[in-house]
Amino acid sequence: MTVTIYHNPQCGTSRNTLALIRNAGIEPQVVEYLTAPPDRATLTALIARAGLSVRDALREKGTPYAELGLGDPTLTDDQLIDAMLAHPILINRPFVETPLGVRLCRPSEQVLDILPSAQRGPFAKEDGEVVIDDKGQRVR
């Protein structure tokens, strides 16, 4: 069983998602996509399998989105993908791929829908928000 997270260690949501994967007893393949970005085929497949549009997978905050004029509605998906490949910080994160599917895990709890193993114990996000109780059950 392979679980892959496209991870940015500087991102709290990405760190929380990675911790939830590990709380299920899974050691994922961690791809630090800022230094090892996916190729075009992989990125396109992740976006499609997650059920997103290319624009939905594009990160605006803390990126060169505005400077590159990526808000222009006439830009094609191929042009947006080109920008994401040239500037990986534009790829929203974290994407997680498991045998059960692909999700853009924002919020981090989205990963729970595709993990093949149950949570093994309580879990709270870095900000203290409890996500998994002491019985390993999701808190809604």
State the secondary-structure class. Answer: alpha+beta
Largest sheet: 4 strands, mixed
Question: How are helices and strands ordered from N to C?
Answer: EHEHHEEEE
How do the strands of the widest beta sheet line up side by side?
2-1-3-4
Helix content: 10-25%
How much of the residues is beta strand, in percent? 15-25%
Q: What is the straight-line distance between the termini?
A: 28 Å
CATH topology annotation: Glutaredoxin
What does this structure look like?
Keywords: Arsenical resistance, Oxidoreductase. It catalyses: [glutaredoxin]-dithiol + arsenate + glutathione + H(+) = glutathionyl-S-S-[glutaredoxin] + arsenite + H2O. The protein has 140 residues and is α+β, with helices and mostly antiparallel strands. The chain has 3 helices and 6 strands; from the N terminus they run E-H-E-H-H-E-E-E-E. The protein has helices at 12-23, 40-49, 77-86, and strands spanning 4-7, 29-32, 95-98, 101-104, 123-124, 130-132. A 4-stranded mixed sheet has the order 2-1-3-4, sandwiched between helices. Strands 5-6 form a two-stranded antiparallel ribbon. The protein is elongated and about 50 Å long. The mean pLDDT is 96.
How would you summarize what this structure contains?
By secondary structure, the protein is an alpha+beta fold. It contains 3 helices and 6 strands.
Topology:
Layout: E1 4-7, H1 12-23, E2 29-32, H2 40-49, H3 77-86, E3 95-98, E4 101-104, E5 123-124, E6 130-132
Parallel strand pairs: 1-2
Antiparallel strand pairs: 1-3, 3-4, 5-6
GO biological process, one term: response to arsenic-containing substance
Keywords: Arsenical resistance, Oxidoreductase
Catalytic activity: [glutaredoxin]-dithiol + arsenate + glutathione + H(+) = glutathionyl-S-S-[glutaredoxin] + arsenite + H2O
